[in-house]
User: What shape does this take?
Amino acid sequence: MVNVLRSRFPVFESLWQRFPDNIFIIRCEQDGGFVIEAINPALERVIGMPSAQTAGRPLEEVLPPIYLDSVLARYRECVARRAPLTYEEVGGAEGEPRHWLTLMVPATEAGGRVEYILGISRDITAIRHAEELLRRSNEELELRVAERTAALEAANARLLELATRDGLTGLFNRRHFFELAERELARARRSGLPLSIVMLDLDHFKQINDSRGHAAGDQVLREVAALFGLVLRETDIVGRYGGEEFAALLPDTTREEALHIAERLRAVVAQHQVEWRGEVIRCSASLGITHLDSVAGGTLDTLLERADTALMSAKSGGRNRLVVSA
Assistant: This one.
């Protein structure tokens, strides 16, 4: 059949010789076998055999055993469906796989039996390699983007920490403490829930700086700041108010509860020992407490002022004690 077309139609012969993709025509035997009718020069170069040596031979005699079962399955599927079939397969020499995209079109005789299969197979290895390269590039890009994003998030977190935290103690700085306290105070006013403020100042802190140096004083401040975490809750807002003075806002806390918390804090500070260059530094703290109520009311500034006044009373009363504002 193919030879007739090639001999009668010069155009067909030209196409057959020059077509860059692999073309093959398979005869479908009535017993279910498949015989090679013809292959074009492009396919001859792939399999390393001229058409004259393959024509009329069953597929089993030409195809490598490793591919035979899968190829026969495709041919049988095309015959059973009596419809064009497209599939992709991988083949080639060991270590040099090639990707082929194959279209098979069945040709039926008058009775409806599939007599021939025309196949065209295109080498798409370069496309698959490009796709793989693109996939890897995308993965690398996504990894770099994720790394840059993580670095940016870490940098932003660090900037936020620098903007909101005291560099020495790690507590909220004065400005951010006021921001958070204002929000909590507004919430307390809306909800009618109690709110208390405790101010703490280390006693005789100047003596520590003068006798042991500012580095020792800084260590004392760091360790005292850490003690707040042992007594206060996660919902409480603690900040370094200035120097050796700290402020804590206690949401949903009554005057009696605040008094109990402040006493625990005073005791923890008094019992704590700071190890410094072979010496032990001990210190105490004075505390002032105030409470938001419907009678006194007031802004955050006035509440802090009342707590500070109570703190001064604790200091003038002998230190290492606490005073609740009137």
Notes: Residues 128-163 form one domain. The chain has twelve helices and twelve strands. The mean pLDDT is 90.
